Structures are given as structure tokens and as C-alpha cells.
């Protein structure tokens, strides 16, 4: 039998078609139900058993453990999940991903599911062109499902049947007689395969196909499945590269959990294979109740049973060691100064490019931006009240530094939203992104204003101009009101849902700021004629009052953007 380059490209192309269908289906489901799935993960993780169930549920629905684990990493990055909660969800995702193997082995080989692909596309395409986002995304998911099974059909046809040509398998057989070493070798093959195709579902589909056409013995296929469990962790670890320490720890926990499971399985491998084969007879009888024409010795279904049994047992064995795994990854990924700093984006996971799935992280990033900006008020207060030249210089440097930080944060968040906006957005998501862009613009302007104030005060210091106690006290009172406004602003930014925010408290503080500004300006104009009133100091004083009040204007703009009034 000839097997050339063209045949190899057919297999690769069929596998690529399968992966493409999987991606379209998963993306469509995430767009259609992403916010609900996120709520499930956020609300069903406090108990580790419920966390496992939620991970299973979301993964079985998305048909992608990678999508679930990347979502978990982004939650850990945003501080929405603790490390132990993340581990529970990841364990559940490992069980959920076995559903794909069952779908493939039951429908992909026993039924002519590819014959339904074109009718499914006929249903999905009109939905995809509808204006309603939900129907559009459901249509996308249906099209992806159809393409997935078309890809599987192509893959099955592209892989040659080696049953009639056993001599081709001689090379493979030379590596199967070394006991545990052979198992480790094929575990490594499964790991590399999954890393290459970047999808454990695709790697599983290929393994099932090779088993179905007789290329792989059952034991070899089972060892490769174990390796695929390790290889699937690479997606979450890649996603965590741009995340913070919490995201990296969640991703490493996925790797540690899967590696531990594979290690004990390699030790018990022959006994576990025998255990699964004994389970198969009663399980086969159960399946034949619903699938009467099931082949008696259908090994691809046995492999699915092996996959599911291993992941369920591994999960419940490791549930008692969640804290132990958390301690290990905490040591592997220690907290660094950079992770505890505030000079970069903390919550955005750039690995997620589906707008509906990143909104919470963007809101938390915006709240972080607000907290960073509000610290400038404290620096300004110290600058106004200290007589130490060293402290004055330090505060002016801090104000300059934070002005640069606010510039950089606005640019990074804006660029990220712009990138996401190239995708199709639901009206609600589009409105939320516009609000966040407006908020970031106002926060950056506040940074500019504080820097502008510091330059005015720097000139005052250089020219040996002094504020009288009354002026200093008035500025302190003004800053106290601004701090009160900042506190309300940050509280509003931290709300999980902007829909719950009202304007009342922010408007009341803004009114106080404006009234106090008017009072101070009148007093300033009244004092200009006094002999003991320094005009140059009065001009700088009046300018600082105006600039502080402008800060209040931008703060109220932010609450208006949250509420949606601009």
C-alpha cells in the first residue's frame, strides 16, 4: 500500500477542518450563552464539588475544555475566582471534555452523521444572517457543529485502513513491547500531538479514528489519550503568559493536576485497562438498549469509557488534595514585586477575544484605573502641606509618574477595546464598551490635571511664593471633597453591574464641590484689594482651585458614563 505526501496532507487537512468546525461551534456557543456560562462559573464555585460540576457542565456545553480553562484563567486573573475554586472547575472541565469523545465514537463512526451536515448548514446559515444576535450566534454554532462532523468524516476517509496490510504496523509494534516504557513513550506522543494541534478534542478525534481503522492497538491509543490530557493544559498556560500571578497559578494547577493523574495511571496502567474491559460488558448492554446495532467489540467506545473513567476517578482522588496542589503551584509561581504593583493592566486576559466574555475583566480593569488615579489626590495634598524640599520633589515626581501611568493605561485599554470592537458586538456590549472608553478618557484627563497643578506649585516653590494658612486650609478642604467624590466614583466602578448604579450620591458631592469653588473664588476676589494679600500667590491659588474643581467635573462624568447618561 502506497502512502505518500498527498495522503498525509489529506489527513492534516481533514484534521484542520475538524478543528475549524470545533472553533466555530465553540465561539458561537460562547457568544450566545457566554454571560450565562460565566455566571454559572462565578456562582457555582464556592464548594469544590459544585465547582467540579460547573466545570463539567460548561465544558460539556462548550465542547471545549480549552475554552473553559482559558475562561477560568481569566477569572483568576480578574480576582473573581480563588486558586482553590479554579482548581475545582478545571477538574470538572477534564470530565466535561470526555463528552466530545462519546459524541465522536457513538455518532461519528456508527451513524452517517456527515449526511446531516448539509441540512444543518442549511438551517444554520439563514440564522447566521439574521439581525438578532442570539439567533445569529446559534446559527454560527450549528454551522460549526456541521463542519466538525464533516471534518471527522473526511478524517475517517483520509486515514488508510491498515487491517489488510499488517506489515505497515511492524514499526509501531517494535515500540509496544517495553512495558511501562512503551506507555510513557505513547503518552509523550499524545502530549506532543495535542500541543501541535492545540486541541485535545482534535487529538482525541484523530486517536479514535486511528483506532477505528486499525492503525493503533487499544493499549497504545489509551496511552496517547493520557498524553492528550497533559497536552491540553498548554492552552491555559499560553493564555496565562500575559496574566498576573493568579492566572499563572491557575494554569499551572491544571498542568500539575493532569500530570499527577497520568503518573499514577502509568503505574497502574495494565490493571486499569483490564478494569475498563471488565466494565465494558455491562456498559455495552446498557448502550445496546439505545443503540441496537452497536458492534460487539467496538474499541473506540471502549476508549471513550477509558477516557471518562480515568478522568472521573482522577478528579475524585485529587479533590482531597486541592490545597496541596494549590501550595505546589504557589511555590512554583511565587508572588513578585511586579505582581503586587499597580503600574500595568492587572485583570485583562488578552487570550480571550470574544467581547461578551471579557466585559467583567474590563470593568475591573477600569475600577483599578480609577483607584490608581485617585491616589494622585493624596500626593497633591502632601505637596501642598509639606515644607520639606525633599518631600516636595518626591511628590512632584510621583505626580509625574502617575500621569504617565494614566496615559499608558488609557492607551492599553483603548487599544484592547478597539481590537475587540472589530468583532460583531451585541448592543449591550457595544454600549458598555463606549462607557468604558469615556471613563478611561476622563481618568486620563484627571491625571493630566493633577500634573498641571503640580507644575503650578513647582513654579510657586521655585519663585519662593507662599500660601497663607487660610489658602492652604481652603485647598485642603477642597481636596477632602474631591477625595469623597473619588471614593464614590471607585465604589460605582466596582459594581458588578453598572445597571445598579445611580447618580444621586455623586451629584450631591459634585454640587458641594461647585458651591465651595464659588465661595473660594468670591473670597479670593474680595481679598485681592488687601495689602497683606500676595497677588502672585492669589493667582496660583485661584488656578489650583479651578483645576481641582475640573477634576470634580471629570469624576461626575465617569459616574454619568457608568449610568449611561452620556
Tell me about this structure:
- The protein folds into 2 domains: 321 residues, no CATH class; 206 residues, Phosphate transport system protein phou homolog 2, domain 2 (Methane Monooxygenase Hydroxylase, Chain G, domain 1).
- It has 23 helices and no strands.
- By secondary structure, it is mostly helical.
- The termini are far apart.
| Number of domain units | 2
Quickly count the helices.
Answer: 23
Average pLDDT level: 81
Helix content: over 70%
Query: Helices and strands, in N-to-C order?
Result: HHHHHHHHHHHHHHHHHHHHHHH
Q: Into which percentage range does the β-strand content fall? A: under 5%
Shape: elongated
> Which stretches are poorly predicted, pLDDT < 50 over at least 5 residues?
337-341
Radius of gyration: 31 Å
Distance between the amino and carboxyl termini = 70 Å
Total strand count, please? 0
Structural class: mainly alpha
Instruction: Report the sheet with the most strands, covering strand number, pairing sense and barrel closure.
Output: none
How are the SSEs ordered, and which strands pair?
Blueprint: H1 5-43, H2 48-62, H3 65-78, H4 83-96, H5 98-110, H6 117-128, H7 133-158, H8 170-173, H9 180-197, H10 200-212, H11 218-231, H12 233-240, H13 245-267, H14 269-290, H15 299-318, H16 322-332, H17 337-340, H18 359-385, H19 389-420, H20 427-462, H21 469-493, H22 504-527, H23 535-563
